[in-house]
Design a protein that fits this description.
mainly alpha; two-stranded antiparallel sheet
Length: 180
């Protein structure tokens, strides 16, 4: 669920990505479907209306990542609690589409965006309510504000991608060369 939150925020919110301005492309449905399939390959196609609704969810999820990256866990928790309350998230075992029993965090009859908001909020709540609350982050590379969840063993990730990590390392290398 947290990886879906990362995908939604990074694909559907404007800002900066890898040193360049980023705006979600006009084909929100396509980029949303692609981002979600990167985590859940069997995700059905997202409609344009669902993608617009998910973009609103992504803006709210970004607030959680930003607060957590700033060390403001209280604000992050308040934002997650608001989503949990609004979506009435609750755990429920379900079995569908030939899959084994698995947890869902929304009730029947919700919207696709509402159901994913509940699931993402629940995943973020689990992280924030644990000793791993510092694993939610915003890229520290210049001119990049994409988010990530640090699943490394030592918990020292600072970048959204290896591309941003390499940009920072290359810039530092060049700066050292100029200084010499």
């Amino acid at each position: 669920m947290v990886r879906v939150a990362v995908a939604l925020v990074n694909e559907l919110t404007p800002g900066e990505r890898r040193g360049r301005p980023y705006a979600p492309p006009p084909d929100l449905a396509g980029v949303t479907t692609g981002g979600m399939r990167a985590v859940y390959p069997s995700q059905r196609d997202v409609t344009e209306a669902e993608a617009r609704e998910l973009a609103g969810v992504a803006e709210r999820l970004r607030e959680v990542f930003t607060a957590a990256a700033d060390g403001d866990i209280d604000t992050a928790a308040v934002r997650v609690n608001a989503l949990l309350e609004e979506t009435r998230a609750r755990p429920m075992l379900e079995r569908h589409d030939g899959e084994p029993w698995h947890l869902h965090f929304h009730g029947p009859g919700g919207t696709m965006a509402g159901d994913w908001a509940a699931s993402c909020a629940t995943g973020l709540a689990v992280v924030l309510g644990s000793e791993f609350h510092d694993r939610l982050g915003v890229c520290t590379a210049p001119h990049c504000d994409r988010v990530y969840v640090d699943v490394s063993r030592n918990g020292t990730r600072r970048f959204c991608s290896t591309a941003c990590q390499n940009r920072v390392k290359t810039a530092a290398f060049r700066a050292r060369g100029r200084a010499e």
